[in-house]
Amino acid sequence: MNRTGTDRTGSPRAHVWLGAQDRALHGVGNNDIDVLPKNSPCGFWACALDQDYGAALPAADIRPSRILCRLTAANRVAQLRVTSVHDDAARVTLDITVWVPAPKT
Question: What is the reported pTM?
Fold first, then answer.
């Protein structure tokens, strides 16, 4: 499973992937996501200030309401919230929020 979006040119880009063997959620290159601790605050500042990037979310911990953070290639902060898990974590649905800085005037 790849979660893909598109960049400005419309080209697909993978954001996270689900390991075929370990069924863990990984970031592209295994270095650009972080898993926030259970019941921790979430949102822009929780992800922006976090320093533990390079983590993966193990299959046993993939549950609704788990929060992952990602730094995008454009240096934007993103939050990925697990909303549902299907087929013993073979399919995972995410709600993704990306914060875009306000344009400079």
Answer: 0.76
